[in-house]
Design goal:
heterodimer; A: about 325 residues; mainly alpha; MetI-like fold; two-stranded antiparallel sheet; 6 strands; flat; B: about 300 residues; about 70% helix; globular
Chain lengths: ~325, ~300
């Protein structure tokens, strides 16, 4: 987290926006910052209170529970285990694959942890890349002026508008052995029956469903680019590709970064599609599926896993904001002169 | 001309990406169009299949009919969905919850994003990252703590307790806000401070400035995040199933469709018909807001 150094002149920083009469610099920078801070917190208060109650409180709750033992029968010994403080046992269960004092046997949930971690990142990487490329292209097509544009925009949105559970059912139906996809391609692939076909089925469904989200966000970002810039570039003799890399890409970057960031965070928590399409079979178990399966066996151990997921995703987001998005925070104000 | 009227005039402008110059060869353009049409077909195919399956007679579906057309379209599946007890009621509940979430989350996020871009204060970056926490936890793991939270909250504020639509609104606003804040932040930041100064010189009050200048300029961002919160609320099974446990009259639409999901014997026709019915309001909402997906900023900055 970068600390903000108050700038002296106040003109170089896009972030500072004095509202009061002191804008010309009559107030001291310090006092201005205090006044601004007060205003800012007034505007932020409702959001922060709501987030504290709905998100932060349950998260902290889950973290506390993750250090507790699940009460219940111990499978290894057959004795009833009281709850109570568990230390980091719930965490070593996942990370070091320890069930009690020994290694988790294959097939148990604990043993699937690293596989699920790999699968989750694999899905996230492939889907986000495909969705960004296709979404960008769709956004550029939709930004052109032509007849029936609003109809096209609305219809492109449809896949995203369908509930995920229904999308999953729809693709399950289509990817079935006697389903339409095998019929159309005259293939006889057991789509959900082995590792890579199952993974591709999930990736295809996810890309189909979420690309419109990317396209819509990028389309909104494209609205920030004035026509004049393109015209000027054209006059200067810039080609299509140059206009794209030199104008479109940099100016749409803040919106694009937000879209990619949120898509990545969402993809890392993918649940519905694999859960319904394959039930997590054939190495398609994601971390979220593992969490849900574990909730049925013991909530405290599941809390540890969801905390691990949270920390992992937090690290990804942190890296993202620090190295890629950090610029988006600072340069979110494209100067157009 | 005053900046206010300039913005208003320009907010109707369309920002367009110019098509490649015709001189570069129409063949290239034609190729791009062909790829576009191919992609549109691929995208549209599952939708076509959805509508087709909703229209096929139940006997054909059960027999595993995979013909790409049907000779006897029937509305039986739609009738089965609409005949679910209290369908109209569920529908209205979904509409109320979704619209409430859109209004509240957009308003709160707009205020928050103004604070995060226009003012400078300690912890700004920390707050931005904190807001993201909602996007980092497996949602499924939060349902149980949230269930107990809502049960407790209901004892002091009945409106947001279990079985109340209020509980859904509160939770969905919480999950929609982080995205909205991040999205709007970029748009608010892109409004040049010169416009604000000009509006002030023209004698606009703060409220007038926000309503007549800032809000129209960030409209594309507002559209994007209102569509986002509408869709995520409209389609939610998880929280609706968790919080609305006994009050039948407060159930939402996805739960009505859920009744057709059965372990061995899914009623595909009804599921597809239900999905078609559920998709229509989203489209209506999008078409209603999408004309705002054009910013006045492009023209307003040059002044």
């Amino acid at each position: 987290m970068s600390t903000e150094v108050p700038s002296k002149t106040g003109e170089t920083d896009t972030g500072r926006r004095g509202r009061g009469p002191g804008m010309a610099g009559a107030e001291s920078a310090d006092r201005r910052q205090t006044t601004q801070g007060r205003w800012a917190y007034t505007l932020l208060a409702p959001t922060l209170i709501l987030l504290a109650v709905v998100i932060i409180y349950p998260v902290i709750n889950a973290i506390i529970l993750s250090f507790q033992k699940d009460a219940g029968l111990d499978k290894a010994t057959g004795f009833f285990v009281q709850g109570g403080f568990a230390g980091v046992d719930n965490y070593t269960h996942w990370i070091l694959q320890q069930c009690g004092s020994e290694k988790c046997p294959p097939g148990t949930l604990g043993a699937q942890f690293w596989g699920a971690m790999g699968t989750t990142f694999l899905f996230a990487a492939i889907t986000v890349i495909l969705e960004t490329v296709l979404g960008f292209w769709m956004a550029i097509v939709m930004a052109r002026a032509f007849k029936g544009r609003s109809l096209l925009r609305a219809s492109v949105l449809v896949p995203w508008a369908i509930p995920t559970a229904v999308t999953a059912k729809l693709f399950f139906f289509m990817f079935a052995f006697d389903g339409i996809i095998n019929t159309v391609f005259h293939s006889s692939i057991l789509w959900t029956g082995s590792e890579w076909p199952a993974r591709w089925a999930i990736i295809i469904s996810d890309v189909w469903k979420t690309t419109p989200f990317m396209a819509l966000l990028i389309l909104a970002g494209l609205q920030l680019i004035p026509d004049e810039v393109y015209e000027a570039a054209k006059v200067d003799g810039a080609g299509t590709w140059q206009r794209f890399t030199q104008i479109t890409l940099p100016l749409v970057k803040p919106a694009l970064m937000v879209a990619i960031l949120f898509r990545t965070l969402d993809a890392l928590r993918m649940y519905d599609l694999p859960a319904i399409l394959t039930g997590g079979a054939n190495n398609t178990t994601t971390l979220s599926i593992l969490v849900v399966q574990q909730i049925r066996q013991g909530f405290n151990v599941a809390s540890a896993l969801s905390t691990i997921t949270f920390v992992t995703i937090f690290l990804v987001a942190f890296i993202f904001v620090r190295f890629l998005g950090a610029n988006a925070v600072e340069s979110a104000n494209p100067r157009k002169k | 001309m005053s900046i206010l009227s300039a913005v208003r005039r320009d907010s109707r402008r369309e920002t367009t990406i110019p098509a490649p110059a015709a001189g570069k060869g129409t063949r290239k353009r034609w190729g791009a169009d062909a790829v576009g049409i191919l992609l549109a077909v691929v995208v549209a195919f599952p939708l076509f299949w959805m509508v087709l399956s909703a229209l096929k007679p139940k006997t054909a579906l059960d027999a595993g009919d995979s013909l790409p057309f049907t000779l006897q379209p029937s509305f039986d599946s739609f009738v089965r969905v609409l005949a679910v007890n209290g369908f109209a009621r569920y529908f209205m509940n979904s509409v109320v919850v979704a619209l409430a979430v859109v209004l509240v989350s957009t308003l709160l996020a707009f205020l928050a994003s103004v604070a995060l871009t226009r003012y400078r204060f300690k912890m700004r970056t920390t707050l931005l990252v904190t807001v993201l926490v909602a996007q980092m936890v497996p949602v499924e793991a939060l349902t149980i703590p949230l269930f107990f939270l809502m049960r407790q909250a209901g004892q002091s504020i009945p409106l947001v307790g279990l079985n109340q639509l209020g509980s859904l609104v509160v939770v969905h606003v919480g999950f929609a806000i982080p995205f909205a804040v991040w999205m709007l932040r970029g748009f608010v930041a892109a409004v040049p401070v010169e416009i604000e100064e000009a509006a002030r010189l023209d004698g606009a009050s703060s409220f007038r400035f926000v309503r007549s200048v800032l809000f129209p300029l960030v409209a594309p961002g507002v559209v994007a995040c209102s569509v986002f919160s509408f869709i995520s609320t409209w389609n939610d099974f998880l929280f609706a199933k968790t919080f609305i446990i006994s009050a039948q009259e407060n159930q939402t639409l996805p739960l009505a469709i859920l009744t057709f999901f059965k372990p061995d014997e899914n009623d595909w026709g009804a599921i597809m018909a239900g999905s078609v019915i559920m998709t229509i309001p989203v489209l209506v909402f999008f078409i209603a807001v999408q004309r705002k997906l054009v910013s006045g900023l492009a023209g307003a900055v040059k002044g």
